[in-house]
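User: I'm writing a short methods note and want a consistent example. For PRA1 family protein, I'll paste the sequence; you return only the structure tokens, no commentary, since I'll be parsing the reply automatically.
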Amino acid sequence: MPVIRGRPSSKKSVFICGQPRGVFVFLFSAAASFILWFTSGTLLFALWAFGIGFLVTVLHASVRTPNLKARLNTFREEFRAVWRNYSEL
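Assistant:
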């Protein structure tokens, strides 16, 4: 193991990417916090979207009219009968 001689390193400051260590740590932690905050907000938005979509689907299924196609066909036939009566006048 090599022996390091000279002045103690307590007076030297550490530079990372040309910035003092404190500035680099602050910028890096701020960037990491922003990225985590942004992605968690996006995930929260996606969870709300899925939840609302599921709620609307269940609500629509619960108030849906049963046998809607048959009711529309009946309405169409009634409308044609009334239309024929008006055209005969």
